[in-house]
Amino acid sequence: MVLLLALAVTFLPVASHAAPLRWASDAEANVPFVFHDPADQSRLTGYEYEIAQAIARRLGRQTQFVQNDWDGLIPGLQRGLYDMVIDGIEITPEHEQGVLFSRPYYMTTERITVRRDQQGLDTLAALHGHVVGTLKDTTAERMLQADPSIRIRSYEEETNAYTDLKNGRLDAVLLDGTIALYYGSPDPDLKLVGAPIGQVAYGVAFAQGNSVLRDQVNAALDGMMRDGELHRILARWKLWTPAMAALTGDASTPEIAPDAWDHYRAATAPTAGWRARFDRYVSFLPLLLHGALLTFAVSACAMVLAVGLGLALALMRRYGPRWLGALATLYVEIVRGTPLLIQILFIFYALPGIGLRLSPFVAGVLALGMNYAAYEAENYRAGLQSVARGQIEAAIALNMTHFQALRFVVVPQAVRMVIPVMTNDFISLLKDSSLVSVITLTELSQTYVRLSSTYYDYFGTGLLIGVAYLLLGLPFVRLARMAEARFHTGRQRQGHI
Amino acid sequence: MRADQVRKIFDGYAVLRGISLDVARGELISIIGPSGCGKSTFLRCLNFLEIPDSGTVDIAGVTITRTGGRWTRQEEDAAHRLRAHVGMVFQSFNLFPHRTVLDNVMLAPVRVKRMPADEARAEALALLDKVGLSAMATRYPDTLSGGQQQRAAIARALAMRPDVMLYDEPTSALDPELAEEVLSVMRTLDNEGMTQLVVTHDMRFARAASDRVVFMDGGEIVEADDPDRLFVAPEDPRTRRFLRSVL
To answer: Where do the TM regions start and end (chain A) (predicted)?
Structure first.
C-alpha cells in the first residue's frame, strides 16, 4: 500500500514556481519529430525535440516534457496541462480556430510512397480509384478527400500506414515529406515517387490567449533562423529543404553532416542474428518494468475503489431507503451503458471545466474504479441476495443493529460467495487499464505501441508484453482457483442439514 | 414477561387476534397448535423480529406498546434494549457458516456488549462445555450434525445472558435421537431457572417438560393450562380435535 501511495505521488503533476517551460508532444513512434532514441529508450530525441530545447534555452527556461496521445494534445493544451505543443502540427484555418500558432518553424510538402515494383502512381491524379493511406486529420488527408473515388485509410501511427503498404493492403501512402523520408525511403521494399505536392507549415501551438508566450517563442524562432541554429538542426536530420531556404532567406549551404539521420538509421537497421535481437529485448526490460508497475498500480488502486464503491452501491440498493436505492440503480445503469474510454476521457478532460483538476493517475484510477464498481455492485447484490434471510434474523435476535448484522454476518458471506466472479473481473480490469494510455499514462500497452513501432517488431515485442500481462494476472488467477476450491468444498459440506 | 392484546395483520389477514400471556420467572411454556395458527409469529413478536400492529410486550422491565402506525426510531431503540434480555433459537439453526462454532458464540458478546475477547472466549468455551460441544469449538457449523448445530445455537443465544429464551420449533428439523440432545439441554436450563417459551410439535416434550402448555388456533389462545390437565382433559373441542390428530 505504501508502494502504491508512493507511485500515486510520483505521477501527480509537480506544481513548481520555478516555472519550467512545459511542452507536450506524442513521442510514441513519432520519428523524426519527437521520439525515444532507439539506441537508448530512456532518451528523447528528434528534430522538434532539439528545436524545443533551443527555444527554451533562448527563453532562459528549463524544459519539462509532457507525453500525451496525439488526440489529446490540443485538449491538454486547453486544459492547461502544459504551455505549448510541438508535434508537427500543421498551421491550417481549422486548427487556428482552436489554438494560437507561432510562426512556421518548418515547411515541407506531401510525398507519395509506393511499393518498389509499382508503376505510375506518381501524381495525385494518378491515385484516382486506388486505396491510399495517410494520417488522420492532416493536410494530406484533405487532399485525398478532394477525389471521392480514392478509398482513404486514415491511420493514427505512420508505421502502420507504411506496414500496410508493404503488406499490400494499400496501393500508396500520401504523407508529409518528413515522415516519408524517415519511414518510406529507408525501406528497401518502398520508394518515394513523383514531385513534391502542395505545401505544409508546422507551427508551435499555444492555448488561445497565450500571446505572451507566443511572441517570446516567435522571437526565439526568428533568432534561430537568423543565426543558422535552425538550419544546423534540420541539416543534421537531413531535413533542410528549398522551401526552408525560401522561408528563412538562408541560401547558404554549409557542410553539416547528417549525423542525427545516420544515428537513427544505424540504430534501426534490421538486426542480424538472434544475439543482437536478444540484446535489444534485454534493453527493453527497464521500460517494460516501468510500464508493468504503472499498469499494476493503476489496476490495484482501481480495484480497491471498485470493491468499496461497489459494495456501498449494492448495500444502498438492497437495504437503503428507496430514493437512495434508485440513485444507486441510476448510477449502475449509466456507467454500464457507456463506454469506459469515454468515461476516462470525460473525467480527465471535461471535469476541469467544472473546476475538478485531476492528475492523469488519479483520473485513470477514478475512471476505472468507478466503472468496475458498477459491475461489482451487481455481483455483490446477487451475493447479498443469496445470504439466507435467517442470517439477519439470527443477528438481530442476538441484539446486533442492522449495521452490525450487515458488517459481521451478511457482507462477509456475500463477499465469499462472489470471490470467483470478482477475480475474473479483476483480471479483465488489469487488461482494461490499457485504456488509461489515452490520458498520458505510459503503461504496459502503450509501451508495446512505442517499442514495436520504433523497431517494426510487433511479434517479439508483443510476446514480451503478453508475458508481462500474464505475470501480472497470475496472482489473481491463483486467487480465483483457491476461492473456487474453497467455495466448492463449502457446498459439499452442507450435506448434514 | 407479559404480552397483552398482541395483534398482527398480514395482507389484511389477522394472524394474531389479540394474544395475552403472562409468564412467570423460571417457567417453561410450550406453545402448540396446528400449522398457520400464528404461534411462530407470536414468538417472533415477543422480540420484535415481527412488529406487532398493536398490543404491549413487557420483558424484564422494558415495555413497548404499539398502537398502529409506523415503527419509529425510538421504538427500535426500545426493542434493542428489550432484545438484550431475550435469546432466540430457530428451526433452521441459522448459525453463521463463515465462522467457527466458538466464533459464532463469541461474536455478539464482543461486538454488541464490547466484552473483552479473552473474557468472551472463556465464557463461550464454558457454554459450549455445558451443551456438550467442547470438542467442536474450532469446527465450522456445516461440519456438525443438526443436533450439534442446534446446541451451538443455544450456546450462542445464552452467551448474551438473556432472561428469557424463545425457541421456534427447535427440533422440527432433527431426527428424534438428535432432537433429544437438544431437549435435554433445554431441561437442564429449566432446572437452572431459565424462563423459556417453546413453539413445538413435540407433544411428548410439551407434556413432560412444560410448566404450562398454550394451545393456539386461528390467531388466538384457545386454552392455556397445566400439561397434565390440557393433554388429559382439554376443555375446548378445538383442543381435543387437535390433540386427537397429533397423538
So the answer is: 287-316, 328-351, 458-477
Domain B2-91+163-245 sits in which CATH superfamily?
A: P-loop containing nucleotide triphosphate hydrolases (3.40.50.300)
Give chain B's radius of gyration (CA, Å).
18
A490 and B112 within 8 Å at the Cβ level: the answer is no
- Dist CA A177 CA A108 (whole Å): 6
CA distance B217 to chain A (A): 25
Residue in this structure with the C-alpha cell 449509466, named with its chain if needed: A334
What B108-115 contacts at long range (C-beta under 8 Å, 24+ apart), as own/partner pairs, is B108/A395, B108/A398, B108/A399, B108/A400, B108/B156, B108/B159, B108/B160, B109/B159, B109/B160, B111/A400, B111/A404, B111/A408, B112/A398, B112/A399, B112/A400, B112/A404, B112/B160, B113/B160
CATH architecture of A276-496: Orthogonal Bundle (1.10)
Q: CATH second-level architecture of A17-105+203-269?
A: 3-Layer(aba) Sandwich (3.40)
Residue ranges with strand state E in A77-189: 84-85, 99-101, 106-115, 131-135, 151-155, 172-176
Structure ipTM = 0.94
Q: Looking at beta carbons, which residues of chain B come within 8 Å of A396?
A: 49, 83
| pTM for this prediction | 0.66
Residue for grid cell 413478536: B45
Q: Domain boundaries in chain A?
A: 17-105+203-269, 106-200, 276-496
Contact between chains at B142 and A400 (C-beta distance less than 8 A): no
Give the mean model confidence (pLDDT) for residues B74-90. 96
Percent of chain A exceeding pLDDT 70 equals 93
B107–A412 CB contact, under 8 Å: no
Q: What pLDDT digit, counting tens, does each position of B113-165 carry?
A: 999 999 999 999 999 999 999 999 999 999 999 999 999 999 999 999 999 99
Per-residue three-class SS string for B185-241: HHHHHHHCCCEEEEECCCHHHHHHHCCEEEEEECCEEEEEECHHHHHHCCCCHHHHH
